[in-house]
Design a protein that fits this description.
The structure is a single chain. With 328 residues, the protein is of the alpha+beta class. It folds into three domains: 2-58, Winged helix-like DNA-binding domain superfamily/Winged helix DNA-binding domain (Arc Repressor Mutant, subunit A, Orthogonal Bundle), CATH 1.10.10; 65-271, 2-Layer Sandwich (BirA Bifunctional Protein, domain 2); 279-323, SH3 type barrels (Roll). The protein has helices at residues 2-11, 18-25, 29-42, 65-72, 92-101, 151-168, 228-232, 238-259, 266-271; strands at 45-49, 53-58, 83-86, 109-112, 133-140, 173-175, 179-182, 185-196, 201-211, 279-283, 289-296, 302-306, 311-314, 320-323. β10 (279-283) and β11 form a beta hairpin. The structure holds biotin. Biotin is lined by residues 91-93, 115, 118-121, 124, 126, 135-137, 179, 189-191, 207-209.
Length: 328
């Protein structure tokens, strides 16, 4: 009921009387009053005017189930229609996996304000302090074969970059396969994990970490990491960004499920690829080598032109790509 009251108050142009809320939700005045007080405690500025009712004047940047479900609304059919929120948890990817093992629905969204054991790629950790970032994981139950699943990371990277570009007007770019950078520094990390049988996917979890309103980073990463706030000089409402990402991802995922490869996405993905047509270093094979990045192929591998002129594809599981002079 709290989510419905919040939705009604947020969507109203004017005050809504306590009586109206009681009738709409078939509850007592005390119950309505309790919900309004909870909202105030969470940071919503609720104006209460005698004989007129309640009006929300300002919403806080909170990641509660109610705020997220108001933001997502019925703009998606399955992405984020089930939401699980934590103020603190070990890792949203771990939580989503457990939910997956216990039968949670395709599209279940897990969000945390803080992670105590945030996971990054290649066994690294992910700094996850409270209150300023997005830590979210989406549980998926695809029906295609397990070998297609790594392409979902590319689909998510494209969806996140596109949604953030639309919402903020900033020039988010993808560093293949799935880091997102802003002005040459990393702002989003994506970690896809899955549980499979030989010919069958039990579930996939795609975790997304976004530095949204972070004001400073630990010394070890401050040369390569940034936040949307640091690059734009503005703070952003995280629930709105999450909703925009889910809307975008649902569209892209459904297209991918139909096509089962990335031919449809190549042109759009390459258009936001930060290294496209630039010289990069391919790391992972002994000493690594220099090449020019040309864009992705239908399977999401990176096509590169080596110094001897031959074109080859590199697979994200085996190599990583760096700029010639640094991270990008
Ligand atoms: C990377 O190394 O670039 C991937 C980082 C992924 C971090 C996110 S935060 C939400 C989700 N939960 C985790 O433990 N990791 C992912």
């Amino acid at each position: 009921m709290k989510a419905e009251i919040l939705k009604m108050l947020k969507e109203a142009d004017d005050h809504i009387s306590g009586q109206q809320l009681c009738e709409q939700f078939q509850v007592s005045r005390t119950a309505v009053w309790k919900v309004v007080n909870q909202l105030k405690e969470e940071g919503y500025q609720v104006e209460a005017v005698r004989n007129k009712g309640y009006r929300i004047i300002e919403s806080p940047d909170v990641l509660t189930r109610e705020e997220l479900s108001v933001q997502i609304g019925d703009a998606t059919r399955w992405a984020g229609q089930e939401i699980v929120c934590f103020t603190e948890t070990d890792s949203t990817n771990v939580r989503a996996r457990k939910l997956g093992e216990n039968g949670a629905a395709h599209g279940t969204l897990v969000v945390a304000e803080q992670q105590t054991a945030g996971r990054g790629r290649r066994g690294r950790g992910w700094e996850s302090p409270a209150g300023s970032s997005i830590y979210m994981s989406l549980l998926l139950r695809p029906e295609f074969l397990p070998n297609k699943a790594p392409m979902l990371t590319i689909v998510m990277a494209y969806s996140v970059a596109t949604a953030l570009r639309e919402q903020t007007g900033l020039d988010f770019r993808i560093k293949w396969p799935n880091d997102i950078v802003l002005n040459g520094k990393k702002v989003v990390g994506i970690l896809t994990e899955m549980s499979t049988e030989i010919e069958y996917i039990n579930h996939v979890v795609i975790g997304v970490g976004i530095n949204v309103n972070t004001e400073a980073f630990p010394e070890e990463i401050c040369a390569t990491a940034t936040s949307i706030r640091l690059e734009s000089g503005k703070t952003w409402r995280r629930a709105e960004l999450i909703a925009a990402i889910l809307r975008q991802f649902e569209v892209q995922y459904e297209r991918f499920v139909k096509e089962e490869d990335l031919a449809y996405l190549r042109e759009a993905y390459d258009a936001v690829l930060v290294n496209c047509n630039r010289e990069v270093r391919i790391l992972g094979e002994k000493d690594g080598y220099r090449a020019v990045a040309l864009g992705i192929d239908d399977q999401g591998e990176l096509l590169v032109r080596k110094e001897d002129g031959t074109v080859t594809s590199v697979y994200a599981g085996e190599v990583s790509v760096r700029g010639i002079y640094g991270y990008v």
